[in-house]
Write a structure and sequence with these properties.
- By secondary structure, the protein is of the alpha+beta class.
- The protein is built from 8 helices and 22 strands.
- A 6-stranded antiparallel barrel has the order 3-12-15-14-13-16. Strands 1-19-18-17 form a 4-stranded antiparallel beta sheet, covered by helices on one side. A 4-stranded antiparallel beta sheet has the order 4-11-9-6, with no helix packed on it.
- A hairpin with a 5-residue loop joins strand 14 and strand 15.
- Helix 1 crosses helix 8 and helix 4 runs antiparallel to helix 5.
- The longest helix is centred in the middle third of the chain and has 32 residues.
């Protein structure tokens, strides 16, 4: 019997109201997954869905006249009398009207990639053979850590040249100082003194050149000299041929290029030993169509989300680069978003959805889209009163993905219904249909 009573109400609801202007369904879904828009609410009953403004209300907890002497009473046109218990039971949410920010977003797909500024390779700086691989895949390293050791004849020659030059320079220094004392006492000829001085200066020059050669290979002259002294005590364990490879920055070993015994550094040989990445910050590469590119600016905030399942990841990044060149095939521009990744949860290669903020405006009165319904071709809101709610016509201005600016009809501080407002629309339509009878 109750179902039969609801049929004319449904027809009346369809006749007098339409849908509130909104954005495309697929865009709403993408924004909802990113946390920027309201997610579709679960239906109160199988026959009533919150997203369908024209569906009739589910049978309320109140009775009609003669049913336990309790029910809604409708006052003047546009008023709906409801008790607080009835409002709660039908899950009609309310909120105070206030100002806010309207934010419009551009939703585009993207891919997580390593930050190119935080991705380095450990090169084999000399020709040699890998003697030790001290780090495994996944190991964390700090700048300056020895990650591998090479056995190199080139290194041995450079070290020998430096050590020999150091010994020669020391001998020539002693000879020069002796000649200097003799010339002051006129015990030697000026020619001998000049020759000793020239030889000493030449030996110093050779020592400086040998030291610079070590520096070019990444070796420290002081450490080489200290190692040579240690080798004098253990001649069978000479370190003359060994060349340590050090990590150029903090990070994690993400790729191993060679094994122990591999020749490196020569023509046709591998040039790198490891790849180190610092994934505390990653990039998200977006392909933005030409038509939307004018709205995207460097520094814009971007909400990134996977939107795949209940374990959806969300984070906020920032546009750091917009390519001045377009892809010849897709006619889109490469946009780079820097995304903090302190927990290493964003893995390079992950496909994501990005919502780029393209406009933000502050308005004095902002209401969610779910608060407005269409009655008799006009947008209305339902304002909370002591007896329940009253219909109030409103005019809207600017809008964003999930809210409107109200220019007339509401003021800051008004309490309005913001959830399940379609139930109030249906109840009002039912009352007006009863008046017509």
């Amino acid at each position: 019997m109750r179902a039969l009573l609801l049929l004319p109400i449904l027809a009346a609801g369809i006749a007098i109201g339409g849908a509130v202007p909104g954005i495309a369904t697929h865009t709403q879904g993408a924004l909802a997954r990113l946390g920027l828009g309201p997610a579709p609410a679960a239906p109160s009953t199988p026959a009533a869905k919150p997203d369908d403004h024209d569906q009739p209300a589910k049978p309320a907890a109140h009775g009609h006249a003669g049913e336990e002497g309790e029910g809604k009473e409708h006052g003047e046109a546009g008023e709906i009398h409801m008790t607080a218990e009835q409002i709660t039971s039908q899950e009609i949410g309310t909120a105070s009207v206030a100002g806010g920010t309207l934010s419009r977003h551009l939703v585009v797909p993207g891919t997580v990639t390593p930050d190119a500024d935080r991705l380095v390779r450990v090169p084999a700086r000399v020709v040699g053979t890998v003697a030790e691989m001290r780090k495994r895949l996944g190991d964390k390293v700090q700048k300056g850590d020895v990650v591998a050791v090479l056995d190199s004849r080139e290194v041995a020659d450079a070290k020998s040249e430096f050590l020999t030059a150091g010994v020669q320079a020391e001998l020539q220094k002693i000879n020069f100082e002796r000649q200097q004392k003799l010339i002051s006492s006129q015990a030697t000829a000026q020619v001998s003194f000049d020759q000793a001085r020239a030889t000493y200066q030449e030996s110093q020059l050779r020592l400086d050149l040998a030291r610079q050669k070590l520096s070019a290979l990444g070796l420290n002259a002081t450490e080489v000299a200290a190692a040579a002294k240690r080798d004098e005590a253990t001649p069978n364990q000479s370190s003359l041929r060994l060349f340590p490879l050090r990590a150029p920055m903090d990070g994690r070993i993400v790729e191993r290029k060679v094994d122990v015994g591999t020749k490196v550094g020569g023509e046709g040989d591998p040039a790198d030993v490891y790849t180190i990445a610092d994934l505390s910050t990653v990039w998200v590469e977006l392909a933005v169509p030409t038509t939307a590119l004018i709205n995207v600016a460097e520094g814009a905030k971007v909400l990134i989300g996977t939107g795949t399942d209940e374990k959806t990841l969300r984070a906020e990044g920032q546009v750091v680069f917009i390519s001045p060149f377009l892809n010849a095939d897709t006619r889109s521009a490469r946009v780079i978003v820097a995304l903090p990744n302190p927990d290493q949860t964003w893995r390079p290669g992950t496909f994501v959805t990005a919502a780029v903020a393209i406009a933000e405006e502050t308005v004095p009165v902002r209401v969610p889209r779910t608060a407005l319904q269409t009655l008799e071709g006009k947008l209305v809101a339902f304002v909370r009163t002591d007896e329940g709610f009253e219909r109030r016509a409103v005019k809207v201005g600017r809008s964003d993905d999930d809210a409107f600016e109200v220019t007339e009809g509401l003021a800051a501080g008004d309490e309005i219904a913001v959830a399940n407002t379609f139930l109030l629309k249906a109840e009002l339509g039912k009352a007006e249909a009863g008046d017509d009878d």
